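Quick entry, no commentary yet.
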Amino acid sequence: MKHSIFFHHLPMFLLFLIVLPNSARSHDYLDALSKAILFFEGQRSGFLPQDQRMNWRANSGLSDGWTYNTDLTGGYYDAGDNVKFGFPMAFTTTMLSWSVIEFGDSMPPHELRNALVAIRWATDYLLKTVSQPNRIFVQVGDPRSDHNCWERPEDMDTDRTVYAVDAPNPASDVAGETAAALAASSMVFGSSDPGYAETLLRNAIKAFEFADTYRGAYSDNANVKEGVCPYYCDFDGYQDELLWAAAWLRRATKGDNFLEYIQTNAKTLGADDNINEFGWDNKHAGLNVLVSKEVLEGNMYSLESYKASAESFLCTLIPETSSSHIEYTPGGLIYRPGGSNLQHATSIAFLELVYANYLARTSLTLNCGNVYVSAQTLRQHAKKQVDYILGDNPMGLSYMVGYGSSYPQRIHHRGSSLPSIKDHPQFIACKEGSIYFNSTNPNSNALVGAIVGGPGEDDVYADDRADFRKSEPTTYINAPFVGVLAYFAANPNLD
């Protein structure tokens, strides 16, 4: 520390304040959890309910699906625009559901209720996307015309183009992720609404059959490609979604047919060289952690390859291991090149906590070659990522809007940056919103709970609305963080 020459002349209490590490600060994880769930209300499309808490939002996208004479209202806008992309929405739903499956017991009853509402807002929509035989609706909204405007969802007058894939054209990735989402959510609603859970599971199986029968990437379809690329193309192949969907169906049904599927296809659909990713496009690390539960807790040795891959991935995260190769910022944040970096930090922290729970229940440790890694070590590593996001970082900034005393004010989000329709009922046309986009003023409405893309590899964040890679929130950054925060809300102090 370059200023240490002055320390001898400071009173002891001031010295303590200066050198007290950020990590010694305690965080209100329950408050952060509440806000992380609330965020999803700001992303809603469709008819908003009477109990809508994010009250600067109003109804939008009410004619979605009309070109197909079908109801495609509802669901979520994935980020700061007004398009409903099915691929990331389904992944968001899977992760919200997994958050509740693993950590719902750690949530206060009212927050668990809010989480179920957030999931159901998505699943009601996803059921609509698979409601017609041999067809899946994969997107609503033309992203080019949408991205050419800066307007509120309540005002949008851009093309609400519907993108559908009909058999025998393939959509294994989106149909597979939709199957995973519906299967996982069926477990969530099993006790509170068994009829709805049965509907979800029945449609999950139907979506999986579509995905598996007509194999291929949805973005290879010329009619769809122009709408989904380059935003949510399938960059990493569709095979992982088939296994991911089958693994969730195995967990939801306990069916031997899905067990056999993930056993026999481990090699043919697996990707041994690509196991260190987890996000809306690549499911391998999450798949391996998910399936490992059966190996660790049920002695299902035929699935050992998944456990080996999961542990290989987890070992790369721990700096003390010989296999460590994950990049970190100087401040300690997991970093991967590209945009929306915090999606990696939240999803990886989630997988660490899930695997830690599996290890703890079986009193096992992780063999990382030169060191053994305990459940507690995984939890401590995850906690560092969480605390960084909540403010323990070189900027001293919380990357969650509305949490802490200092957080991003100029996020890349149309509805948040433009005045609310309740404050400014007059129509704001496509290009009329540009003055708000270009303004250096803080956003008009706080999208409470939104986690932005985050800082660069140098830990620097400029709070610039135009820098969407850093300042845009997404549903799939928040979704795994719901589970992570639920764990730490119940276990704030790791001994």
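second:
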Amino acid sequence: MAINANLSPLPLPLLSLILLSSCLVCSAFTSKDYSDALEKSILFFEGQRSGKLPSNQRLTWRGDSALSDGSSYHVDLTGGYYDAGDNVKFGLPMAFTTTLLAWSVIEFGSSMQGQIENARAAVRWSADYLLKAATATPGTLYVQVGDPNMDHKCWERPEDMDTPRNVYKVSTQNPGSDVAAETAAALAAASIVFKDSNPSYSAKLLETAKKVFDFADKYRGSYSDSLNSIVCPFYCSYSGYQDELLWGASWIHRASQDSSYLTYIQSNGHTMGADDDVFSFSWDDKRAGTKILLSKDFLEKNSEEFQLYKAHSDRYICSLIPGASGFSAQYTPGGLLYKQSESNLQYVTTASFLTLVYAKYLTSNGKAGVSCGASTITAEQLISQAKKQVDYILGDNPAKMSYMVGFGPKYPQHIHHRGSSVPSVRDHPDRIPCSTGFQYLYSGSANPNILVGAIVGGPDNSDNFADDRNNYQQSEPATYINAPFVGALAFLSGQSSAGH
């Protein structure tokens, strides 16, 4: 742009102020943007559905799939979600996804407005499946359908699947306290979501949650040991099962207000991770999330037994805030929280969600903020920090790329996802066999089916992103990346529309 030499220059401070304000305007998202992203983040789950699709299915390029899951074992294990870009139903990430979707509705459902029914439907799709998996056979929890080693040898849409649909379970002889306690957490959290709209369903969910938790607690062991190469290295329980037991008990306590779970938390907390400072929250490690969840009781009741959880929650939050005492997180040059090269955005969405939940708990109880050493980080600062992460994902980043498919003018076109990358059954009714599908994996063409709302693994530690189907570390979406983002977007859409 040419500069008119006859204009007198603006004073530098004023010029920088004008540039700053114009930049804020150009990069900020409106309430409408957050509402749009919220709708899409929930719609994504319809693209991950397994089983018989309902008549109101909105992502119409998907069709029915895996309709006989469990039948050769004389159980009905149809339904639920495919975890990511493959066609396996993995129990641990599915249960965690359900817990986080439910928590999103519990905390921020009042800001979801027209999306609340879709959000409840997303919770129910997996809650129904987990209920079946938990009640089909006494003393057993079905935790997986599909052999991942065989599944990964094919590139085929779920509607054509012909890989073995083996069913895997944990039992009294082969325990899986981690996956069972997470399933209990999911059922308990879902019971809160349906408490008013469907009390009988809610009661069934909570009753089942208690039974599954008792099973998890009584027959202790890691499902990675029981199922080995079927769950490892895909969703190996690296953190062990203690964190899930404490998380499961905390959710049942929240759902039931049954004091026996409070006693359990008090008696077992110290051996189940209550004393550990852990600075990430994921499908594997629940410690940070449990502390934020339990800190609510301390803030509301000022109860001594939860003081420890509040202190650890403060340390977790301080670790995320640049410049704060205790800050230990890594950020990319463009400002994105960075934990690891594979599917990094899962840590960004969980951290953003926990930060907003904690800000809500502090504000609701009249607390000034979080003490990080000598300084106090206000709830407003926490919200601002989470908002930066959300905005980065939505396109306010050095690449000007939205990492949510279908949101904004520029988003990933070559995501690592079988159903999205192979022509749909609507457009190509003939079967596309296992090995034939690989031509679509290796094709340079954009995916023919848009998996609206999917959040991919995201950029590297230098903000670089390869829009490449073969780079699954960056280009694969997953249900557990989206689930906490639903809550974060609901909060921001509500806050923006309220004029904050």
